[in-house]
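During the no-cost extension, the postdoctoral fellow (Dr. R.K.) reprocessed legacy sequence entries with the updated structure-token encoder. One reprocessed record is reproduced below for audit purposes.
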Amino acid sequence: MVIGMGVGKRKKLLVAMAYLSLVVSARLSHKVGREEEPEPEADRIIKLPGQPKVSFQHYSGYVTVDKVAGRSLFYWLTEAVHLPDSKPLVIWFNGGPGCSSLAFGASEEIGPFKIKKNGTGLYLNKFSWNTVANLLFIESPAGVGFSYTNTSSDLHHSGDTRTAMDALEFINRWLDRFPRYKQQEIYLTGESYAGHYVPQLAKEIMTYNSRTKFPINLKGIMVGNAAIDYYYDTIGKADYYLSHAIISDETHRQILNKCDFHQHNGESKECKSISDYTEKEIGNIDTYNIYAPTCSNSNGTNSTRRNLDLSHGPLSIFRRLSGYDPCRKQYAEIYYNRPDVQQALHANTTKISYHWTACRLIKSINYTEKAHSILPIYKEMIAGGLRIWVYSGDIDAAVPVTATKYSLAQLNLTTKMPWYPWYLNNQVGGWTEVYEELTFATVRGAGHEVPVFKPKEALELLKSFLSGTPLPKL
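Re-encoded structure tokens follow.
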């Protein structure tokens, strides 16, 4: 009993104390075993340097996926412009392996902001995918972008299996931090080597869901110009080079005769010799868009994009006509290395010992374990009832449309809607075939990063994918 108070005052005080006790208890119970997980409000981005005014909320920060090794993955969530609670969650991965989802997906392709020349600020992307969905960009694996590990051996022995397991751990912990997304539909998307990341993560989620009472609400996947099967990807690339007059008939014959693409790491001396010759025969072009200009380096030479750094390659009339800037990667590297940007993003909080780069060099991340083929996982996803869409920009020679068609042919799919042109604003956007098990689509005139070259068409792809409806006919 509280002495010296009337009955009414004592009653009010006891009620207040009881309420306070409940609040403290709730906060403590939330934090037990979760010390590294801040409240979502701590991840809220107030405003990025040079950011235009927006109506949506966005968040960024770290999620620890292995406390012992000290592995943490960096994310950036940009909520949907309208009614985010009613929109699905679309998770995006870039590939490489070793390339940043901030540099490419968020800042070049599907995010709400693009970076101004020389990294001086941001401007709005009117074809952002957050016009129809909540977007979650993840830099994966650890060592890519702002994601890090405190165990150096992690960088020497990285690979598909751990990348997928870390991504699953990330999603579970992230959903605990943002529980309002647990009931919303989740879709995994990405491009290039994310053709491994996305299906492998989907498989991990399906396995996890079969063992838990609290499943992740995964509904489907969509991947673009995706690495699927090493043999068919490589044969498809050689055939694409030939069909687009990039290499000679004789060189094509030599490639097929001297290289055994059934062996992922078994390149012979003869194959290495013809590969080197092929590089010279191709010349200084951007194979990620064979008709685009390359970007001049500071020393005045041009850089191609056949290596995994995905460097963009000189500005020309092409940029003015299409909106494509082949030097955009350089702007990202300026912007995301700015201390004020990192502070606003809650990034680089551990002061990593290297500069943020759009793609880490292979010697920086030794990605040793790569699946030869993802086709068996496609069969598992089909059996699991996931919605599956695969799309190809048709002027990409890095993971070309021929490679994807060769890979998908191995699945012996059942045609539901035969090959037809799909339209946007009365123009052919590409071609598509709808199977009982999945949908395949091309995007006419798009390179490896489809939303960079054909942003309207890419948004149309997403809308059709999320609604589960075929791409529009004329």
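Residues 430 and 444 are 5 Å apart (CA to CA). Residues 1-5, 11-36, 298-323 have pLDDT under 50 and may be disordered. The remaining legacy entries will be reprocessed before the final report is submitted.
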